[in-house]
Each structure stands twice: as structure tokens, then as C-alpha cells.
Sequence to fold (305 residues):
Amino acid sequence: MRDITKYQGIIPAFYACYDEDGKVSRERTIALAEHLLKKGVKGVYVGGSSGECIYQSKEERKEILEAVMEVAKGKMTVIAHVACNNTADSCELAAHAESLGVDAVASIPPIYFHLPEHAIAQYWNDISAAAPNTDFVIYNIPQLAGVALTMPLFHEMLKNPRVAAVKNSSMPVQDIQMFKMDGGEGFVVFNGPDEQLVSGLAMGADGGIGGTYGVMPELYIKMFNLCKAGDFAAAREIQFAADAIIYGMCSCKGNLYAVMKEIIKIREGLDIGSVRKPMPALVPEDMDQVKKCAAMIDEAIAKFC
Fold:
């Protein structure tokens, strides 16, 4: 029986860290990993959407994971998202991740072409086979991938004993219930949409993986602990506050990740760069809203944590 306690908690999706020239920064990556470790998160999810993976080379993604593992190995859970839009590169990243000792590898389905489900299953199983001693996490995010994890595809993947979890970023909370119910004892489901962490935990999610966790981890850790204690009313109040912050951050012209990186710089004194083109960086008129959101985070932490 696998140890699922390492997945039960708040796992921020790790942000890409760049230098002033837009190149991956090993030093800033290490600094962010150390920062999140000190905040008390359960682990980190490296190389996913928040990590801007689709705009990075294989070599850059390896460099980022290596830097994170220097900090995190043995101290917090590491899930490495390894999907590329071809099987060979994805398998190479999976094998590399296993060689570093990550807890799990994860993958979205192939994007752009809408492949039949048997081809998606083959893609995921090939990636899993490249990391044969490591848990595999299915990343279900149909609104971006263009493909949903159906129950027949889910049941097919459960034939693979390394399939340990689903990161569920579809919006219906009911999906969490279905994956938990059919996954069986010891199967893990992560809540994906940050705006509904409390709902996901109430429906049976084991933990959460989220893109806004890194900018305000204190709030999500408190939400998780309250839910585990059965105080959903108090957790819901924090959820509402976090959602208001998310809506505020999304109102900027700059990309959400650019906004959050600037807030981390303002609140924590930690500079991890901006975002990679074609994602839009902040514009000067964003700054008042960015500062307002940073203040909202300070106020929420002071009130709830």
C-alpha cells in the first residue's frame, strides 16, 4: 500500500523563475523553493501550467526540477509535471524526474490534436513506464487541454498500478467524488480549481494543487487545516477572501503569474522575475491594482492566520 500522507495537504504549483534576461534562473528557483518550504507547504508541483512549461525547453525543465530537488528532497513532496506534446520528450523528462527521486510524475493529455482515448491511455502509460518506480498523477484540466478525463478512460488507466492520483482541475466538484469513489482505497484526488478548495475538500479531495497557493500559502494552509478539523464554516470565510484576491489579480492586463510574482516581490522581498513571452508582462497601469491585491493578502493573513 502506497503512502498517501505525503499528498495530503497544500501543494503550490511552482512558478517559473527567470533572470533579468528572461532565462531560467537556478538561484531564484532555489530561493522560491526555500521560501515555500519555510511557509510550511506539504510539497510543490513543478513544471505545470504555473511553471510555464509549454514555453520552455526540455533542458530548462530539467534544470528547474534539479534546482527544486536540491532544496525539497526529503523535506517536502515533489510532483514533477513532465508532459510535452510528444511521447519521446515526455518519457525523457519522466526518466529524469525519477532519477532525481521525485515522489510522482504527472501529465496532461496531449494537446492540439484530439486523440482517441486509447491513444491518450497509451501516451500516459508510456510516460509511466519511463518512470517505473514512481507514482503517476493524471492531470485533468479539460478547459485548457481540450480533452476531459472520462470515466472509461479513468478506468482504463486504473489498470496501471502506478497510477496513484488525479489532479482534478475540471470545475464540477462532482468529478472529485466520482474519481474518489471509483479510484478505490488509497487513491488520491487533488482539488485543482483554487476558487473551490473548500468545496473539493468537502467532497473528499485529499489535498490541493493550485496556481495561487504560492502567493498566499498561509491562507490555503489555514483553509485545509480547518476543513480537516471539520470547521467548514470558518474555512469558507477564508475561501471567500482568497477568491476576492484572485478576482482582483485577474483584473490586471498583465498575466496572472506576472501579477503574483510582483506581489511576492512586494510582500516577501523575493524577486523571481516576470513571465515568458507570449504571456503578457505587467504594464505600469497594473501597479495600483497589484499593490491593492498585496494589501488584501496582508489583511486576510492578519485576520485569519
About this structure: The mean pLDDT is 97.
